[in-house]
Amino acid sequence: MPRRLPPLTALPAFDAAARHLSFTKAAAELNLTHGAISRAVRNLEERLGVRLFERGTRFVRLTPAGAAYAAEVGAALDRIGAATIVATASRSAGVLNVSTSDGFAGRWLVPRLHRFHRENRDIDVRLSTSGVHADFIRDGVDIAIRYGAGGYEGVVSEFLTEEDVSPVCNPELLQGEHPLRQPSDLRHHRLIHHDFRIDWAMWLQRAGLDDIDPNGGVRFDSAAYAVEAAVQGEGVLLGRSALVSADLAAGRLVRPFDLALESRWKYYVVYPDGALRQRKVKAFRDWLFSEMAASQKDAQQTPRARQA
């Protein structure tokens, strides 16, 4: 007996409109026009003979029937997406597409990636660092490391690590004409900035310092370049713990002070439901957690800079 199916091309439009409760946002997500979303939903309602949305001048909301249908359609589309990933996995079994930020890639992931390759010689990693959350289906991404508040929709999200922020610098700045011994010594040194939610103004206020310009110094858009500037002795950076851990362990950077501020945002490993059925994804996911645990152990054993 043939299945009784709705117009399948209308389902993604309905799903997006139901999730956002906005035809405009649904159109932006699917790269369609507002009119295309409206027509798709109207066509679906006519075929079903059921009103799915209540429409007002400045709002749309799901009817009870629409809410029940949206839950089932969303779950079905998630299953289709997961099945698509599994079905196409054999086409590129040896290539793993990873999405993350340039800072995490450059200062944490890439310096350690040789260990993953050594253990998994049949898997070739492709890194994307666009700074935009990738669409796993459209962009062909297998797994992502995201920095944020968590709660990512439609995917599996696992907590990887938290992060704190504290001043870091080249060890040579602990010596010389103006050695860094206490926070007030920062007035003699250049501050290094990069765009982040915790800035020098917040740290200096917590340290009780109001006579140091929190905006002076050099600024980078890229966290990776900001860390490299600190390694080269260009000044003192508010270093994010995950991004400076390798440099601290190697002695290229030191923490001159104890005061650290905890970030509310954290790192998460994110992948589509069912992706761990692919060996390449599971191998990389397991390696990430193992490597992060080792990194945190090294960080605990890295002493604070000894003052001369």
From TrEMBL:
Signal peptide: none annotated. InterPro entries: LysR-type_TF_proteobact-type, LysR_HTH_N, LysR_subst-bd, WH-like_DNA-bd_sf, WH_DNA-bd_sf. Residues 6-63 form the HTH lysR-type domain. Keywords: DNA-binding, Transcription, Transcription regulation. CDD domains: PBP2_GcdR_TrpI_HvrB_AmpR_like. It comes from the Bacteria. SUPFAM superfamilies: Periplasmic binding protein-like II, Winged helix' DNA-binding domain. It holds the Pfam family LysR_substrate. Gene3D superfamilies: Periplasmic binding protein-like II, Winged helix-like DNA-binding domain superfamily/Winged helix DNA-binding domain. Belongs to the LysR transcriptional regulatory family. This is Transcriptional regulator GcvA. It comes from Mesorhizobium onobrychidis. The gene is gcvA.
